[in-house]
Amino acid sequence: MILIKLGGSVITDKSAFKRFNKERVSGLCREIKDSGKDVMIVHGAGSFGHVLSKEHGLQNGYKSKEQISAFAKVSRDVRELNLMMISELIDAGIPPVSVPTGSCFIMDDRELIMNNDEIIREYVKLGIVPVMFGDVVLDRKKGFGICSGDTIMKYLADVFSPEAVIFVSDVDGLYDRDPKISKDAKLISEVTPDIMRTIPSETTVADVTGGVHAKIMTMLDMCSDGRDCILVNGTVDGRLRSLLTGKDVVCTRVRKKG
Prior knowledge:
The protein has an 8-stranded mixed β-sheet, sandwiched between helices. The relative contact order is 0.16. The protein has 10 helices and 14 strands. The chain is α/β, with parallel strands linked by helices and 258 residues long.
């Protein structure tokens, strides 16, 4: 089984509030289906979640009653996005089911708690693809917070030990600086803990869930001696399919050791 994260930067236009990239998502779903691989899928919230979350500081926990309305709206919006994702997966011939993080699980000081993962396990046994997503989630200490798709990926990798973990983004991989700003940015094809220590966190793209630097650190935590994590560009037609079927593609591989 392969664990795939479809990032918010690919499935939505982050520069526009609640704009779904339907054509791109449709293509990625077909690539997953055509690969013939068994998968589990997590997706980001993109512009359906980050805009209001950042505006109202939801990632910092409960501060005032004025945040409650924003919490409800973000919860609604990310579920709207999830239903569109589910529809595209069904149209591609993949049997998905929505598993809303904030409705099933809780956090404790920003740590995701899944004391009962029976729901997810049973779906997998039946051949149904559980689809989880970045969400606003209750937090035992902070009242509520943002649970990123990357956090969910870490948990699922620990539980299901997938053969591969793939993060689909809108860039070719990790760069030594933000490629959207600097034309001189260089792609890093292989990342280890030693290499990561040389890359300043402030040079990478940031959002309410921590940005690229935090993503790579999460990926390092998910690596094992027999499993790399891969960051690949989902805006290039066919690249995800090629990666899933074992072909060499432009990407960044994150490894536990050099």
